[in-house]
Amino acid sequence: MKLRLHFVVDPMGWFCTSMVLFVWFYNSFFVPKLVLLPHFREGHIPWALVVSYYLASAFCMAALFRASTADPGRLPPDPNIPHSERDQWEMCNKCNMMRPKRSHHCSRCGHCVRRMDHHCPWINNCVGEDNHWLFLQLCFYTQVLSLFTLVLDFCQYYYFQPLTTVDQEAFTARHELALIRTSAIMGLVMFGGMSSLFYSQVTGILTDTTTIEKMSFSSDIGSSNGGSKKSWQRNLAEVFGTTWKVLWFIPLRSRQALTAAHQFRTHV
Ligand SMILES: [Zn+2]
Ligand SMILES: [Zn+2]
């Protein structure tokens, strides 16, 4: 797997990504420390539950890292345009470079991105043809982790047996209620936000329409891509770069476009 890291210089994006990292770190640290590990030690929960939480956390971080550092689909300075595709290309009036139709110029990133969906400050990167699959994975795993967190926070008070061997003088034990409530609020916000984002992303992919095209009032772009005739499996397979559905859930792999339309296409 070729790992070419892509960083966008944008203090606002760094701030937003830091907030996401803080939420992830807070829950990945306090939920096991306050809930999972003490209850596992006292034999109230199986080890598989502890491992599942850490796995959800690891997949979430892997998808975040890859979505924010992957090239979203930047164009090379001098693209080799196949003769048969000439009419599918246009000139960008901001960077004066040739680009395939459906590309957009991102003012935050300062360049054009192939099949750009939107610029996401929370990952400090554009979401385009080459990292859309990673963004979708991030939405999915964030939902899994935040729902898992919410359920555990709930169970801590209403279902699990009281802990007997925990040190009542420890900082985390004295502030347990506040720490768990903070975790539950974060879980609720993340789960609500990510569920609506995931839904709009999936419906966009199934109709082969990007977020920019959905928002655009120019009906010629929207209608030509909207109402995709392809099956849902085909639309998703094109985004993930593979028809192997199990690979749709793996963030640590490289993606190759299913249709080799442009030879300069980068692999992430
Ligand atoms: Zn441009
Ligand atoms: Zn951008």
Give a quick summary of the entry.
By secondary structure, the protein is mainly alpha-helical. The chain has helices at residues 11-41, 47-69, 132-158, 171-174, 176-206, 211-215, 219-225, 232-240; strands at residues 89-91, 98-100, 104-106, 111-113, 118-120, 125-127. Residues 87-216 form the Palmitoyltransferase DHHC domain.
Care to describe what's here?
51% of the residues lie in helices and 7% in strands. With 268 residues, the protein is mainly α. The chain starts with 10 loop residues before the first helix and ends in a 28-residue tail after the last helix. The protein is elongated. The strands form three sheets. It has a two-stranded antiparallel sheet. The protein has eight helices and six strands, in the order H-H-E-E-E-E-E-E-H-H-H-H-H-H. It has one domain (11-249). The chain binds zinc ion (2 copies). One zinc ion binds at residues 92, 94-95, 97, 105, 111-112. One zinc ion (ZN) is lined by residues 106, 108-109, 119, 126.
The secondary-structure element order is HHEEEEEEHHHHHH
Oligomer: single chain
> What's the mean pLDDT score?
89
| Largest pleated sheet | 2 strands, antiparallel
Question: What is the strand arrangement across the widest sheet?
Answer: 1-2
Bound compounds: zinc ion
Rounded to the nearest angstrom, the radius of gyration is 22 Å
Shape: elongated
Distance between the termini: 8 Å
Total number of domains: 1
Number of strands: 6
Structural class: mainly alpha
- Determine the strand fraction and express it as a percent band: 5-15%
